[in-house]
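Onboarding guide, step 5: your first structure request.
Type a short instruction followed by the sequence, for example:

Predict the 3D structure of this protein.
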Amino acid sequence: MADLKKLAEELSKLTVLEAAELVKTLEADWGVSAAAPVAVAAVGAGPAAVEEVEEKTEFDVVLKETGPKKIDVIKVIRQLTSLGLVEAKNMAETVGSKVLTQVGKEAANDAKKKLEEAGAAIELA
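The system replies with structure tokens like these:
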């Protein structure tokens, strides 16, 4: 059996982009999805049944537009992701790029605020 503690230590060393790539690889290799399962209401439940709405806890920070201050946006992307200059520049120039994936609400809002202050248009998905 694998040493789970050692495995957890190794995974904690991954960058956000490396972790996202790992998820994609595992999904493809194992034929599964990392998306949270959606609760389905029971068939035949009467109108009195109340559906519980789960609050979203993980968000993607998506770049919709770089804006006029592209250099400032690139600097913020580098701070948030630890990407190199070329990778951050490519991300800033690609509409719909996910700057961060599956991060908590607080981290997503903080990243959104920083990127918008730099002039970018951001969407949390």
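Each response can be followed by summary notes, for example: The two ends are 37 Å apart (CA to CA).
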